[in-house]
Structure formats: structure tokens, C-alpha cells
Amino acid sequence: MRPRIVFILTVALSLYNSAVSFAQSVPDSKGPPPPNDTRTPGFPIDDNIYILLAFGLLLGIYFIVKKYRSNDIPA
Q: Tens digit of pLDDT for each residue in 63-72?
């Protein structure tokens, strides 16, 4: 099992290293293009992000409580 983990880690780190080295910018580049004058409207998810975070937190708490209650049932 250990040689397989070492092999997987070696491959993963090699791929990560090559991805990082390819992502380096070229000194001659001028950067990103200027933004357009016409702005698109924001998505509705941007306005309600705190509500989505609260729902996610409540859903996580629900699953944790459900998991622990199912383990406490006496036989």
C-alpha cells in the first residue's frame, strides 16, 4: 500500500509543479485586456450570499445531529 501512495504523491506533485511552472507569466506580456464599457448586471446569487451560507450551515448541523442521533438508539 505504501509504494502506491508514494507513487500517487509523486505523480500529483509532478503535475502540480508543471502546472505552476506553466502558469508563470511572460515578462513581455502586457497584462489582461481592459474591461468593457458595457457592464453586465450582477447575478442574483451575489445579493443573497449570506442567506445561502446560513442555509448551508443549518444543513450541515442537521446532518451532524442526524448522524449522532442514529448512533444513540439503544438496541
A: 998 888 777 6
Residue 12's φ and ψ, nearest 5 degrees, are -65, -45
Yes or no: say if 56 and 50 are a contact pair by the CB < 8 Å rule: no
68 domain residue, yes or no: yes
For residue 72, CA distances in Å to 31, 52, 59, 65 come to 59, 31, 20, 11
Amino acid at 53: L
Residue 49 inside a domain? The answer is: yes
- In the chain, what is the greatest distance between 2 CA atoms, to the nearest angstrom? 71
Cell numbers representing residue 42 in the block: 450582477
Domain of 52, in residue numbers: 44-75
Q: Is residue 50 part of a domain?
A: yes
Digit-coded pLDDT (tens) for 35-59: 777 776 666 666 778 888 999 999 9
